[in-house]
Amino acid sequence: MRCVIVFCALLLSCDAQLAEVKPELNVTLHKGLSERIGNFSIELLYHTTLAQDKVSNLIISPITVWTVLAVLAEGASDSTLTQITTALRITPALKEAARREYQEIYKWLQVKTNTVELQRLNAMFMDVSNDLQKDFVDVAKEYDTHVIPANFSDSNTTTAAINSLVSSVTHGRIPMLVDSSSIENSKLVLTSVLYFKGQWTAPFNASYTTKQPFYDSSGNQIGEVNMMYRRHNYPFANIKTLQAKVLEIPYGKDNRLSMLIMLPNPGVSLNNMFYNFGNESLDTIFNELKISAEQYSDDEVDCLLPRFKIETSLELTDALKKMGIIDLFDERKARLPLMAYLPTHVSRIIHKAEIEVTEEGTVASAATAAFLGNRIGALKFEANKPFCYLIVEKVTNSITFGGFYHTPSLF
Ligand SMILES: *[C@@H]1O[C@H](CO)[C@@H](O)[C@H](O)[C@H]1NC(C)=O
Ligand SMILES: *[C@@H]1O[C@H](CO)[C@@H](O)[C@H](O)[C@H]1NC(C)=O
Ligand SMILES: *[C@@H]1O[C@H](CO)[C@@H](O)[C@H](O)[C@H]1NC(C)=O
Ligand SMILES: *[C@@H]1O[C@H](CO)[C@@H](O)[C@H](O)[C@H]1NC(C)=O
Ligand SMILES: *[C@@H]1O[C@H](CO)[C@@H](O)[C@H](O)[C@H]1NC(C)=O
Ligand SMILES: *[C@@H]1O[C@H](CO)[C@@H](O)[C@H](O)[C@H]1NC(C)=O
């Protein structure tokens, strides 16, 4: 039996009205599972970028990958199980506690306001002939994974059902996740979808967007971008251990979701900066951002950020193998007895995601270069060389989306 796993994630973000609400964060959910998922997320981003055969821009949704693997762990035994739980940083014996904590976190990954929308859906399509273990189906539900029966012999109908569900959650942004040939030999397809649309708390004004050069880490110009500009009192910190500057750009009105832009110091490569991130917690970074926001609340930052769009469709198998998950993909070694009666392994894990970062698209760009000059008192944060971005849900410290921008283009 073959088992294909597919999941996708999508992000679309633009901007909106100004709002200055900054409630205190409740950090009780930052410890425990949340921190483990965070560490997994950073490792996954690191290995995904290393596994790319050529350097290109990247967007992935680490928490959806974590979720799919956690569901698989519930069906696994022997070294298949321990390899997954080690990478996920959960203890097999404490799976039940992990499920409870996950539900607590997952609750927060749903938002629907005028300015921010975050939707998620996990679904497992299983063949009508597939004898899934009943306990597994029940446990999957605890990970909020719906089980949907389908007839895999009729692959066109099943493909249409999967695509239509994914398309409806992503508001049509991912109309075709699978084609019928890719599910032909499968008996099971697991999908995890996350959709985000956020408007900046302080939008960029498109009249200030200008064409600007973009450099590589060594300072050579490698292309041009449409650079957005905004002066605002963004939380900003210089994190020495990261060898990077970090800027927080909040979404919406309730200070729940933010984009963090991490820009390496001169002479530091993106990979090195990100490697350092493995030793740093998100809490430390947010604390430094908070301290700087309090101490320098009047300091404005000139933020220059390229308008960009990234679409990623990648196989995560290699990155996950680097993280020690090996047997799951091996037809002979995979052990998933708690999931299905027949021998089952995972043939592929496909991840599709998309991000679009803009100011507000319809305003004509008429730029004045002089405007970009650095006034006394304003700090300058210029993302004109490779950077990392993370979209973080702050109540739970979840990295919902993250990636790298290093290949410029005029979007
Ligand atoms: C923080 O969140 C936890 C869990 O949701 C809750 O039990 C606690 O009362 C909250 N604390 C504050 C200060 O709001
Ligand atoms: C599944 O689809 C095949 C091909 O269309 C059909 O022959 C079969 O009867 C279907 N099975 C069920 C249980 O509906
Ligand atoms: C499935 O769709 C493909 C492409 O649209 C088509 O060529 C094929 O005949 C269809 N198969 C069935 C059984 O309907
Ligand atoms: C954007 O800037 C232009 C030029 O300064 C100004 O006329 C316009 O009102 C601004 N738009 C917004 C939405 O602030
Ligand atoms: C991370 O911390 C460990 C233990 O303190 C240390 O051995 C390692 O060199 C550090 N890695 C980086 C990238 O700083
Ligand atoms: C997560 O990573 C941080 C930084 O390396 C480390 O201090 C912490 O112990 C890790 N937590 C877990 C649960 O692995």
Give the strand content. Answer: 25-35%
Uncertain parts: 1-24, 360-376
Mean pLDDT: 81
The CATH superfamily of the largest domain is identified as Antithrombin, subunit I, domain 2
What is the CATH first-level class name of the largest domain? Alpha Beta
How large is the radius of gyration? 22 Å
Q: How far is it from the N-terminal to the C-terminal residue, by CA? A: 44 Å
Question: How are helices and strands ordered from N to C?
Answer: EHEHHHEEHEHEEEEEEHHEEHEEEE
In words, what does this structure look like?
The protein is of the alpha+beta class and 411 residues long. It has 2 domains: 2-18 and 30-199 and 309-356, Antithrombin, Chain I, domain 2 (2-Layer Sandwich), CATH 3.30.497.10; 200-306 and 360-405, Alpha-1-antitrypsin, domain 1 (Roll). The protein has helices at 33-51, 62-75, 78-88, 95-107, 134-142, 155-169, 270-277, 282-295, 317-322, and strands at residues 2-15, 58-60, 111-112, 116-127, 145-150, 186-200, 210-215, 221-232, 236-239, 244-250, 257-264, 301-306, 308-315, 345-357, 379-382, 387-393, 398-405. α2 (62-75) packs antiparallel against α3. The site of one 2-acetamido-2-deoxy-beta-D-glucopyranose has 3 residues, from α7. Residues 35-36, 39, 89, 278-279, 281 line the site of one 2-acetamido-2-deoxy-beta-D-glucopyranose (NAG).
